[in-house]
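User: TTF1 factor. Structure?
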Amino acid sequence: VGLDAAKQELEEFIPHVRNISNSSIKKMAGRDLERFKQFKKEGIAVKFGRFSEKENNQIRKNVKEFLSITGIDSAEKLLFTSRYPEDKESIHRLKVENKFCEKLSEGIPRPWRLIYYRARKMFDPNNYKGRYTNEEKEKLKKYHAMHGNDWKKISEMMSRSNLSVAMKYSEIRSAVNYGPWSKEEIQKLKRAVEEVIRKRIGAKGADCLSSPKKSSRDLSIDHEKLYQKLPWTEIEAKVGTRYWRQCKQKWVTILTNKMTKGQDLYKGINGLQAKINLIKRLYEMKVEDPNEVNWGELSNAIGDVPKTYVQAKFYKLKVSCVPFWQKKTFSGQYPSCLYIYSLRFLLESR
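Assistant: Predicted structure:
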């Protein structure tokens, strides 16, 4: 398939494909296009975002089967071959001969690259090592001074994953303020978010974000652009005094306050009703995994708010209302929530 034809065909499954590099599109045409077409025949949509537990289990199954077929010793050798230079050539040959790309992505309707990154995260023994000690933080600063942003090299020196060392360095590279946000910091945050959004969609599109002529569908898409997949490490650098996660949380708070005109949707009788509506809508969806929930659609159950706001509210509901919620399935958490908040609604509305 030629490059232009590949872009056109992939666009049906990945709307933002024209923003992807040509080299990546060529790889996707080979690894993903036929898979996507087959999933379409089966009525299965291509997915993005967080992996569900069902998908994680499928990755585990695929990796286990591939190891069984090839006789490779471990998932670490399979997914982090560069750590084993003496076996590198033979492992690479086994991957090619046994169609590693196809086997790893089997049964998972996502781009192969995302499946591969997820598998590496799941099977990296260096990925879950707890908090960094002060000694490790000092080593990280020292290694970064020597090697810059070569996270692969630094991760090997520290026996931590690439992502872990990169994010930890982002957190400790400068003094971070943990107190209340100042007016100056808030203004910096707003300017930083505006800059990255304008860069992404173009100045003309950004100027139209609040146009009253837009349909409700267009408006919801615009709202997503205001908080979905923003480059938070870039925003962190522009703010200068706050860690990226603080910036993200503060921006969601600012956006929620703006969208609700400063009203607390969870106070009083109306707040109880909003919680009941949210739980009922979740129950009607009949999903078994929180990652399969369309949280954006659910935001309509309690008002025009970012989906992260809705996710956070449901988390607080189940933690406060469902005994032993960690041991229950996602769908099994609804009845307790619904019973308790329906009872509160009846008592407080008398």
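The domain at 134-173 is CATH 1.10.10 (Arc Repressor Mutant, subunit A). The first helix runs from residue 3 to 11.
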